[in-house]
Amino acid sequence: MGFYSRVIFPRLCDVILNQPAIAKLRRELLAHAGGSILEIGFGTGLNLPCYPPAVRGITAVDPNPGMHRLASRQIHQTGIDVDHRQLRSEQLPFEAASFDCVVSTFTLCSIDDVDQALREVRRVLKPGGRFLFLEHGLSPDPGVQRWQRRLNWLEGLLADGCRLDRNVRELVRSFAPEHVDEFYLERTPRTHGYLYRGIVRR
């Protein structure tokens, strides 16, 4: 992992994804989190202040050591007990049916083998357990889709492998849907701001 990925990109993420409108969406989603929680793609820990007060501990994974370092600040500030592990979501070192809830925010876009990661999410969830996600992805507008695909190469370079055109609703098709909605984030380019927010069950 190069200097940009380890040092520059984590700081960019911490700024770009730490906006009031996004924080509001995080809080609304994470109001449904509870029990034993695993967060994949933990990043710089921006979800931590958005968990309900009853959540006092989570397990978190992220492969980027730079994200890991910046997340320490959020962990200290919130006081949530975080079992923070530097590893990829494609191979989770947890027993089957270990968690009541798995959380993913702005993560599925950049996982190399996203289908394998979601198989792992299903595996570690308890029967009936919830997968909560807030992700950007493929727009339903054909014109926007064309630009998303044209810009994928640049997005991948600037955002550490991120793809703009992942169809998140299709990716979670193996889960039982509880609630999934899609919308454009205001004041954001449509290529980057089409969001999927949902709760699905194993």
Summary, kept brief:
This protein has 202 residues and is α/β, with parallel strands linked by helices. A 7-stranded mixed beta sheet has the order 3-2-1-4-5-7-6. Strand 4, helix 4 and strand 5 form a beta-alpha-beta unit.
Name some characteristics of this structure.
Rossmann fold; alpha/beta; 6 helices; 202 residues
* Widest sheet, order of strands: 3-2-1-4-5-7-6
Gyration radius, rounded: 16 Å
Order of helices and strands: HHEEHEEHEHHEE
Quantity of strands, as a count: 7
**How much helix is in the residues?**
25-40%
Total domains: 1
Helix tally? Answer: 6
How do the helices and strands line up, and which of them pair or pack?
Layout: H1 3-16, H2 20-30, E1 37-40, E2 57-61, H3 65-78, E3 81-85, E4 99-105, H4 114-124, E5 125-136, H5 142-158, H6 168-171, E6 176-184, E7 194-201
Parallel strand pairs: 1-2, 1-4, 2-3, 4-5
Antiparallel strand pairs: 5-7, 6-7
Helix pairs in contact: 1-3
Describe the 3D structure.
The chain is of the alpha/beta class. It has a single domain (3-201), classed as 3-Layer(aba) Sandwich (Rossmann fold), CATH 3.40.50.150. The chain is built from 6 helices and 7 strands. The chain has helices at residues 3-16, 20-30, 65-78, 114-124, 142-158, 168-171; strands at 37-40, 57-61, 81-85, 99-105, 125-136, 176-184, 194-201. Strands 3-2-1-4-5-7-6 form a 7-stranded mixed β-sheet. The longest helix is centred in the C-terminal third of the chain and has 17 residues, at 142-158. The termini are far apart. 39% of the residues are buried.
